[in-house]
Design a protein that fits this description.
The structure holds two protein chains of two kinds.
Chain A (H helix, E strand, L loop, with lengths): L1 H40 L2 H31 L6 H24 L9 H21 L1 H4 L4
Helix pairs in contact in A: 1-2, 1-4, 2-3, 3-4
Chain B lengths: L5 H12 L30 E2 L13 E7 L5 E6 L5 E5 L10 H11 L10 E6 L9 E6 L7 E5 L2 E5 L3 E6 L12 E5 L10 E5 L5 E6 L18 E6 L5 E6 L3 E7 L6 E6 L10 E6 L11 E2 L3 E2 L8 H5 L6 E5 L3 E6 L11 E6 L12 E8 L2 E2 L4 E4 L8 E2 L3 E7 L3 E6 L4 E7 L4 H4 L20
Parallel strand pairs in B: 1-26
Antiparallel strand pairs in B: 2-29, 3-4, 4-5, 5-6, 7-8, 8-9, 9-10, 11-12, 12-13, 13-14, 15-16, 16-17, 17-20, 18-19, 21-22, 22-23, 23-24, 23-25, 27-28, 28-29
The chains are: A mainly alpha, B mainly beta.
Amino acid sequence: MAARAGRRTAAGFHLYHVVLLACAAPLFLGGLLSDLAYARTYEIQWLNFAAWLIAGGMVFAGIALVWSLLEVLLRREARRRGPLVGLLLLLAIFILGLLNSFMHARDAWGAMPAGLIMSVVVAALAMAAVWLSVSGDRIGAAA
Amino acid sequence: MRRASLLPAVAAGVLLAGCSDPAPERYGPNPQLPAQQRGLLPSMEIAKPAPWGDRRPIVPQGYVVTAIATDLGIPRQTLVLPNGDILVAEGRGGGAPALRPKDIIANFIKAKGTTSVKSGDRLTLLRDADGDGVYEGRSVFAENLNAPYGLALAGDLLYVANQDALVRFNYVEGQTRASAPPIKVADLPAQINHHWTKALAASPDGRFLYVGIGSNSNITERGMPAEADRAMVWQVDAATGAHRPFATGLRNPTALAIQPGSGQLWAVVNERDELGPNLVPDYLTFVREGGFYGWPYSYWGQTVDPRVRPQDPQKVASAIRPDYSLGSHVAALGLAFSTPAMGPQFAEGVFVGQHGSWNRNPPVGYKVVFVPFRNGRPAGQPVDVVTGFRESNGVTRGRPVGVTVDPRGALIVADDLSNTVWRVTPARRSPAAEAPSRPTAAPTGNAPPSATPY
């Protein structure tokens, strides 16, 4: 009984992590698509969209990073390969996302092509993090 | 990756890490243009405002400086009227919306280095009726203007460049208050108004007004449609208000002046940011009719700015090199031709007011310099005239904007941080000799009644 409640708490705790990542990933993806649109059209508004979408992604990625850190620190059972890789992924997303935000603070084409390349990397990492967070390995405890 | 010159830029960055000064600023007709560079974050070095207290700006030996008006509502440009009265345009314009997260952060930081006083939106008249150098008379000449900046007098017409329109007043010598509301001469481009200041000069015959209109962005980051009718000098017909572009590609022509004798139009122009501490030089130039000066496609003639897409090689090929580099990021906002009455060392040349940098470490500007001329062209290194606005620890007491030369031998400097107007004069002259004949006008306290005060 107690074990089952513990598992439920654990799953609930982890659910926040998944939702936060599920918010961050499409924002980073939107940033990437906006970057692509800017690179193809030189229409500056796409670059503004990209900057805001990335900033939004960073908010959720930042909270998710803290959450993931708490998960690993507070829950003994989270100290396994899956959650640790997830934490490192989030750390990479956060650092690269921050660099990408600075890149998108450059004016006009000054943000390119480095901004686009970084957007590709960050969006890919964010999707990988979502994948990992909902994969069997991660919620294996409930099985 | 981003630029072919990435390697030299990195090398320069490594070099810079070892010393505090990122190489000296470069002046004159042939400044060296280093490789473009941009760190992860633009370096920002914001002024720390502080009151003057008993201190004063520093002027050359043999000159004195006095504050002739304080507690103004953000003085920007001044105009010396034929009777010696001084008009001060006060106000703050702009208000371009923040488009990116960067804008919000940068605006917040930059606001710390400027005054928090309310925009005056008026013209204040200062009068020294007895010629003792003390401007005891002060009155509001006109109010409820929209961020007035450029001022010019042509005959009996006083022109004022608001941030959205060129307007005029009738002016009678000795007047201390406008007799009627302003009449609009022409609308000026005011959408967004990223660079809101509208510089102004009148042709010697009074037929044309020249209006300096700044770009709507640093380097097209608000899109090219926002740059229609921007970054250029307009020639406006005084009689009809019709306008045409007189010269283009001038990123932010912040002050215009007519050269005595030649009647030629000169300008100081603020150039683009975020290409490094020693790019791009702000400049002083004779404004060639029909000339294209590069913005946004290129700078200092034909050096391409890769941040602008689509590029325009044809425009780049037609770009003119400006005449004289004032140094990068100095933010030249004032321009006035000197007169021999300013003393032999400043007899021929221009004074340039430099508001000072916000994105260069160490900071530059924050002073008034003199660029000597010979045979009507700039010749030689700039000379510091008024300094002491900023200390090396960042404490900043003033920021010079407009400069004007009183033909009787005085330099008038508007300071929009301490909201003061400074007056610099050669010390050897006795005050009485400075302003010989004055109209026997009443001090401004008893302004002559006007028929239609407003």
